[in-house]
Amino acid sequence: MGFVLVLFVFLAVAGVVVIYFRSRDETEAGRTRPSDNASRRLPYSSRQYLLSRAERSLYGVLEQAVQGEYRIFAKVRLADLVYVERGAEKWQAHFNRIAGKHADFVICSLDSVSPLLVVELDDRSHERADRVNRDGFVNDALASAKLPILHVRARSSYDVSEVADAIRRAMASDGNAQHMVGAYR
């Protein structure tokens, strides 16, 4: 009798193990998907704001300056604006340098949503050595891609017509020069 009981328990445990692995395989194959909340909670929370107070201020000025003639996007990844040319030596290293960086704002055409101008908001953090190096690389990458960049010094207020003029001048350029609004060092 003891042998039959042990055999029964063994078969029951084996059955549970087989059912477990089959259901796991089905879940991984996409046939059944338990709720993310039911299985486990990932360590993420929603940010309260997409833009900082300074970025929101400049965004409003940019909206006024372009008067609906262009689309404005915020926090665009540099790798979505420029690409590493096919066949480039050390392609992955070049891609890695642009993958983790983003532009504060990108002004695009209304119809094709083609990038026309990158706008960077430069606050005091851009005076740090690491930021100067980062900004230099971004400027060089955009110049190489012939995509103009406009640096706007962070201020408590902006002159919309001054920003609009700077946008027009920057868009009219060949993309090799940096354009700036505000007092710079």
Question: Would you write up a description of this structure?
Answer:
With 185 residues, the protein is an alpha/beta fold. The chain has two domains: 38 residues; 129 residues, Endonuclease, Chain A, CATH 3.40.960. Helices cover 45% and strands 18% of the residues. It contains six helices and five strands, in the order H-H-H-E-H-E-E-H-E-H-E. A five-stranded mixed beta sheet has the order 1-2-3-4-5, with helices on both faces. Helix 5 links the parallel strand 3 and strand 4. Helix 3 crosses helix 6. The longest helix has 28 residues. The protein starts with a helix and ends with a strand.
Layout of helices and strands, plus pairs?
Elements: H1 2-29, H2 36-39, H3 53-66, E1 70-77, H4 91-99, E2 102-109, E3 115-122, H5 129-144, E4 149-153, H6 160-172, E5 178-181
Parallel strand pairs: 3-4, 4-5
Antiparallel strand pairs: 1-2, 2-3
Helix pairs in contact: 3-6
